[in-house]
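Hey, does this match?
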Amino acid sequence: MEENCFHCGQRIEEEVIQFDEKDFCCQGCKTVYEILNVNNLKDYYDLNRNAGLRPDEKSNHQFDFLNTKEIFDKVVDFSDDGVTVVSFYVPVMHCTSCVWLLESLDTINPNIISSNVNFTQKTVQITYRDADLKLGDLARFITNLGYKPSINLKTLDKKKKSKVDRSLVSKLVIAGFCFGNIMLLSFPEYVEVFGNVKEQWLDQNKGYFRWTMFALSLPVFFYSSTDYFVSAWQGLKNKYINIDVPIALGIIVIMFKSTYDIIFDISPGYFDTLAMLLFLMLTGKWFQQQTMQALAFDRDYKSFYPIAVAKLENGYEQPILLADLKKGDRILIRNEEIIPADAILMKGEAMIDNSFVTGESRLIQKKAGDKIFAGGKQSGHAIELEIISDVNQ
């Protein structure tokens, strides 16, 4: 019978570690369970069974660069009077248990004042006392809980905001405004009439209501629907029919049929249907754009490369920003770290995984004097490299 880890839910492939009458796959999962148990946070497992994540077993040196003042100032949101606020991107956040635990960090660590999670953006903002807790130790602390923050060059680019299609937003707002008012003006047409007085009042004012609805439909037709007309025209010009062709045709038919009906006093037309159709389609288009942005198909090397590497000077390690890395610099690359630029192996035996560049996950052995290309990931012991080219795409 296969056994699963009580914390992370993964199948136990090696030795079963038992604690508190429960089975765990590794010491990391057992340790996280102990931490939650000691701090009375067992509700974590009640919210979602097997919601835990296996802690990262990489070297404890992976976040030391965050303690360098230059890097610290670029990463944090606020730091003054012994209190620091930092926002971490946590891509492995996936359920209510994750949110609950990350917002309960102050219960586990007394140096953490508060933590707030934005689940849609997968970020956690932590306020802590920097006198007793370093930024690197904070990142290591949440990593040991299974929620490793993603800290890379993209993190420093805080001024770059998500792209907002202001044209689409304005078209959506206008369509929504016109839709609401057209529905209000068309309401008397759908109300059952009782009595001659009310019938006479409606007959006397229906022209006003109908032509006002016509006026409100003009910005919907000539502005909010332009994207569909342009897309349909581009398709026809290139001799193929896309999905916007029947949509554009339907918009034109509804508009002209409604105009014809009110001119010859046949009916109030379908201006409310036209405005509603555009409003709902534009709303769906806006949600589609938000989803596509969240998937981040346009990630470049900054999304994968680390913020800094360990530069060797006179035998000592010094964290340095990748932007300051120059030809001839000697750097130290540890297990699972990405090589930021083309380099020559100076010391150690490298086992390079070039899957980030080639897509093929295969370890390639390198010896002292061999050239190693940027994007490779070291698997094994730490190696020393000498940079021979600048960091770029």
